[in-house]
Amino acid sequence: MAELHPACAPLAFLLGTWQGAGTGVYPTIEDFSYAEEVSFTHVGKPFVAYVQKTKDAGTGLPLHSEAGFLRPQPDGRVELVLAQPSGVAEVLEGTVEGRDIQLSSTAVLGTDSAKPVAATERRLWVDGEVLHSSVAMAAMGLEIQHHVVSEMYRLS
Amino acid sequence: MAELHPACAPLAFLLGTWQGAGTGVYPTIEDFSYAEEVSFTHVGKPFVAYVQKTKDAGTGLPLHSEAGFLRPQPDGRVELVLAQPSGVAEVLEGTVEGRDIQLSSTAVLGTDSAKPVAATERRLWVDGEVLHSSVAMAAMGLEIQHHVVSEMYRLS
To answer: I need a surface site. Which of B7, B8, B24, B94 has the fewest CB within 10 A?
Structure first.
């Protein structure tokens, strides 16, 4: 196991695997509930790898997944690059304050066949033993608005 | 184990984990050699998840990694979205012909602190038992040119 890179110290509270459940809403789709697992890992370099998978709470079938990298920066800033199987790639910038990370997209890219996403805002925060994750999204031509929120507990 | 989505059939030759070695060159850096592991997995949906990690051939220390999703499209087309810990996100489009995937970036995004990458071309092809992977890159203000090439064998 590599030693944590000093730059990653502000993100150490995230490291490990977390499991829980969440709910999603958006004007263009039916409300949904999901089981979620996220993992944050490091290899001793100045970034934290992030992998997320969700399953339909009813059927257990896979829903969403995403993978990317958190890049801590000086002065409490943090960057996130993210790829999604929906054909969307995001670059986000924001801050980490204590155990609260807040990020806004600076650019969102999509493949030709991807549904249009214009912007996202993401928050990851730990309160007590609970990791909360929320995403707001401007997609399908709509203003940015709440999309998903979940609560997870540490598995390892 | 989910059944492979029919849309992924053209990518079935990639599924599994592959290990091998490669070499890298670029005018702005010293030549380097690396060990590489890639995995291609599916969950029954119309995409293939891709994870890659490399280590320095001499020291064994982690070098690069990337994660993303291949999205097969009709008519032998394929899309790739990719996130990298260097702070770069790529969207690529291309073709799959037999066991040969060729992709060119349609857009490359970087965080504020990322080194500038303007474009990439990627090829993944299987010849006999060998998976070849190559990347050409236009970065640091230079024209697109060969960057890395590797050969891997199936681990599972």
So the answer is: B7
| Inter-chain residue contact A67 with B49, CB threshold 8 Å | yes
Name the residue among A51, A79, A111 with its Cβ closest to that of B91. A111
Domain count, chain B: 1
Tell me whether residue A67 is in a domain: yes
Taking an 8 Å cut-off on Cβ atoms, the answer to whether B88 and A110 are in contact is: no
Site from A59, A109, A113 to mutate, B interface, most B CB atoms within 10 angstroms: A109
pLDDT digits (tens, 9 = 90+) for B103-149: 999 999 999 999 999 999 999 999 999 999 999 999 999 999 999 99
Residue B1 lies in a domain: no
Are A37 and A53 within 8 A, CB to CB?
A: yes
- Best of B45, B77, B82, B111 to substitute, by most chain A Cβ atoms within 10 angstroms, is B111
**Tell me, what's the pLDDT at B1?**
79
Residue A98 has a pLDDT of 98
d(CA B111, CA B89): 9
Q: Is A141 left (phi over 0), alpha (psi -120 to 50) or beta?
A: left
Is A56 contained in some domain?
A: yes
> What does the pLDDT average to over A30-48?
98
Domain CATH for A113? 2.40.128.20
pTM of the complete model beyond 0.95: yes
Residue B126 domain-assigned (yes or no): yes
**Cα(B139)–Cα(B89) distance, integer angstroms:** 13
Q: CB within 8 A of B151, min separation 6: which ones? A: B20, B21, B22, B130, B131, B132
Is the predicted ipTM greater than 0.90, yes or no? yes
